[in-house]
Amino acid sequence: MAKQLQAIRGMNDILPEYSPAWQYLESRLRNLMATYSYREIRMPVVEPSPLFSRGIGAGTDIVEKEMYTFEDRNGESLSLRPEGTAGCVRAGIQHGLLYNQTQRLWTMGQMFRYERPQKGRYRQFHQFSVETFGMAGPDIDAELILLTARLWKELGINEHVRLELNTLGTLEARKHYREALVEYLSGFEQELDEDSRNRLSINPLRILDSKDKRTQEIVADAPVLHDYLDAESAEHFETLKSILDAAGVRYVVNPRLVRGLDYYSRTVFEWITDSLGAQGTVCGGGRYDALVELLGGKPTPAVGFAMGLERLVLMLETLNLIPESVQKTVDVAVVTRGDGVSAKALPMIEQIRTGLPGVRIQVNCGGGFKGQMKRAFNSGADYAFIIGEDELANQTVSVKPLLTDGEQENMDISAVIEFLKKRIQE
Ligand code: ATP
Ligand code: MG
């Protein structure tokens, strides 16, 4: 027998049992974005590799260790997208969406990173992300945080996430800080963990969020970025905080929050949960004013965020917050009695469907009457339509309530439609 084929490690099937949770989350996200007047953009999952090495930064974990990169048949280096921002900026520049305009965009889809698979961390995962362009002030930063806060409330997880906030200042201010940091950390070079030692020359800010104990102790006394902030960035940050205060959004300023990507400036933020163990960041974002120019466009202020949908679905499941109604897929189960009745009943069912748009009617194709009735009960349907030779001949349906003790009633097609219209409304 041939060896059984398996999905790639860390790349999951989302089975029908779980898709209602995904659809629920996705539709909440779509509705939310519509109410803030954001528009959807969709990009390819494969892009030329240099987009990511330039856009994300050569010294980052993502580009150094996590990208799926390969040559296509022409020898061009391509990569599966590890995140959505670089591709969105590429598309924005290519199609002239950014120059002298404002854009509020969202997208949703698969991302790929070669990481060690574990709970909440996969090699193919899904992000929902928002990118805005052309708005330099702190009000748009605040809008992004407010809309995520609203989402947590709608999903019922607002008590289970907390907001951490920081500002990285301008790239210029960060350069000065970087020098001071490197000077301080160089004094401890031999004591740093290996990753951090390597980062010292490439990406020293990342050392600030090292998970290594000794490195953390060293970092505790390191110079802090806030002392190097330029006045404008400091004011931007103060205004952002005052908007959040006025709107009642709680946050903690974490001066060590730097985020993994090179392109951020000024505001960075993360929403973190304790309900998922180690993989606690459900949403991260920030301002990336330099990226558009870096990728070949005109200077354009930009701010965005990305959330990990697997982690959110896990949270909703763990906290039992997926409404039962979304699990339900059948309102009416059609049960037939007698040889060949099932096939002949279909045109009649089609007439009923036309009169009942939105009502979910499942036809039991095949099996004896008893087996079909059992499936009808197990489907969670409210009613069964029972159709035998008599019903066919008279063009009627026997309607049997499955969730209550009500009587079975025989009705013609228009009566069935009227009856269900009153009882099952989408
Ligand atoms: P982490 O610190 O958990 O590795 P990150 O900083 O690499 O996260 P981002 O690049 O900011 O993550 O991506 C935004 C969000 O996407 C994360 O907050 C997380 O919810 C989700 N995410 C990132 N990597 C993965 C992954 N491998 N599997 C599942 N979700 C992920
Ligand atoms: Mg990561």
TrEMBL record:
Domain Aminoacyl-transfer RNA synthetases class-II family profile: 1-347
InterPro entries: aa-tRNA-synth_II, aa-tRNA-synth_II/BPL/LPL, Anticodon-bd, Anticodon-bd_dom_sf, His-tRNA-ligase, HisRS-like_core, HisRS/HisZ, HisRS_anticodon
Domain of life: Bacteria
Annotated Pfam families: HGTP_anticodon, tRNA-synt_His
UniProtKB keywords: Aminoacyl-tRNA synthetase, ATP-binding, Cytoplasm, Ligase, Nucleotide-binding, Protein biosynthesis
Catalytic reaction(s) noted: tRNA(His) + L-histidine + ATP = L-histidyl-tRNA(His) + AMP + diphosphate + H(+)
Binding-site residues for L-histidine, renumbered to this chain: E83, G84, T85, R113, Q127, E131, R259, Y263, Y264
Coiled-coil regions listed: none
Molecular function in Gene Ontology: ATP binding; histidine-tRNA ligase activity
Subcellular location: Cytoplasm
Keyword Transmembrane helix: no
Gene3D superfamilies: Anticodon-binding domain (3.40.50.800), Bira Bifunctional Protein, Domain 2 (3.30.930.10)
Record's GO cellular component terms: cytoplasm
EC number from the UniProt entry: 6.1.1.21
Enzymatic class: ligase
GO annotation terms (biological process): histidyl-tRNA aminoacylation
Keyword Aminoacyl-tRNA synthetase: yes
Assembly behavior: Homodimer.
Similarity-based family: Belongs to the class-II aminoacyl-tRNA synthetase family.
Stored PANTHER family: HISTIDINE--TRNA LIGASE, MITOCHONDRIAL-RELATED, HISTIDYL-TRNA SYNTHETASE
Record-linked HAMAP family: His_tRNA_synth
Protein name in the entry: Histidine--tRNA ligase
